Amino acid sequence: MSERPTDLLQRVFGYSRFRGHQQAIVEHLVSGQDALVLMPTGGGKSLCYQIPSLLREGVGIVVSPLIALMQDQVEALRQVGVRAAFLNSTLDAATAAEVERALLKGELDLLYVAPERLLTPRFLSLLERSHIALFAIDEAHCVSAWGHDFRREYLELTILHERWPDVPRIALTATADPPTQREIAERLGLTEARRFVSSFDRPNIRYTVTQKDNAKRQLRDFLQAHKGEAGIVYCLSRKRVEQFADYLLEQGFNALPYHAGLDAEVRAHHQRRFLREEGIVMVATIAFGMGIDKPDVRFVAHVDLPKSLEGYYQETGRAGRDGEAADAWLCYGLGDVVLLKQMIEQSEAGEERKRLERRKLDQLLGYCESMQCRRQVLLASFGETYPQECGNCDNCLHPAATWDATEAAQKALSCVYRSGQRFGVNHIIDVLRGSESEKIRQCGHDQLTTYGIGRDLDAGTWRSVFRQLVSSGLLEVDAEGYGSLRLTEASRAVLRGERRLLLRKEAPARERERTPRSGVVVAATDQPLFGALRDLRAQLAKQQNVPAYVIFHDSTLRNIAEHRPGTLDELAQVGGIGGTKLARYGEQVLEAIRAAG
Ligand code: ADP
Ligand code: ZN
After folding, report:
1. Ligand 1 pocket residue status of 198, Cβ below 6 Å
2. For residues 505-543, b (16+ Cβ closer than 10 Å) or e, as one string?
3. Burial of 326 (0-12, 13-18, 19+ CB in 10 A)
4. pLDDT > 80? residue 521
5. Which residues is 230 bridged to in the sheet?
6. pTM of the entire predicted model
């Protein structure tokens, strides 16, 4: 081996040290062995195969399902002087032929290829005639039949090992749950490969869960703290995406919709704008986001309940890849729970699958309702212990108060029972609060003994009570019908007074949502220079038609603004500036510093 990994890391990428398991993984691959890498989003997976591809002879073949993102990934590598290319269906024949020629002539360090392309006899025969440094299988969880990212072609990737048994393989994923990990190892023939499991903690992300009362207004308030920043708002359905995107536009945000119902071209265009422009809010279904490596996404907001804790973690993981402060904000209410339960029960899936989905939903509800440090709950669900309190989640920052809700729960449960277990939560709350609505009179519910016994609590508090009763299994939602509430086996102990119940007291929304401004913090005196550097970056990006972050990250610019290097040597000390970027942009950056005085 000619160059040491750390030297290459500094020379090409401009970073002074490896993170976490990176170095061990690099060395393992360079020595020709297979690896299975589990690292959270933003953990630094790419370098794990990029550096060995540069250190080993031949070209690194990267299998990725994310066609729309390959171009930017390749562009980022070219910016640091790596000879990278991609092959997928978006290339015209002439460009594809050019890439193939470069591959055969040994002129590539890295080649990104879509799985369906890789598996064609034509491409496999090209590979036979090339020298291969390694195979990297990115987004390896796509091999999992249970996951929503399943790609059939991934099942056939074992062919790589059969044909090239001596070429090391590395499979990478940010999916944390152990069953999926096992599935990946088995299906990709990597059971013997060494596993590198990183902590899945993302310390810079602040988790907040808030009770839904008016999701649009709550979202707008949350976004006030993120004006001008890029972020993602996840919704459950296409319709909701359209509604929220329209609303945010009305409110003056730079919002774009993204869902599977949109034209492929429109989708690609919106994704491109999100990546290339600053401060776009993408309102999307979960169809959006896999592989989005934009480093400066400052928030991920969920205005509907996601389907599982694992999905939630993946989605929120897209915030703050640059390590700077970021927000993960979830707004949910009983309506979400009812809706998701109905979706599970009414789906065509088999009983085994439904059972799995019910369990996942319960786990997610456990997270939402927990009064413990959110990070502890999240990491525990991935089998990781996080002993201390994180100090960077809503429960740590504003510990939830509890109240003795035993009596309220008894009233709620008996009202459900007396009205025949056929009504939804709004009606039950009306009965409890003694509403004089037409429906109540028609049903004769003003005659019930529970009519009006809950006037002491407001409707919002009752909704919170019911939500917590459902989440903790003390009430059941009839998911096949209209969401009527029923008692469960567990309700009895509460009704009989054998079990006391402490519930979370909802803090006023404003208080909980008030999070200090996140994002890149630049001292006031450095602001003018930081602004000038951003302008320079925007200009360079525009000239080359690439996203700004491919030129420099915000954190790099902030460091420059802080330290004001006067020479190229000093500039090279700033993280994220390797030899190629120094040569290309160094003088212009120094000029900007001099001009700022
Ligand atoms: P992942 O693919 O695991 O989500 P990436 O490979 O995109 O993560 O890396 C996330 C960010 O961290 C990138 O902006 C990358 O430049 C940066 N990064 C990765 N490794 C290092 C390192 N050793 N030192 C500094 N920054 C790093
Ligand atoms: Zn915490």
Report:
1. no
2. ebbebeebbebeebbbebeeebeebbebbbebbeebbee
3. buried
4. no
5. 297
6. 0.85
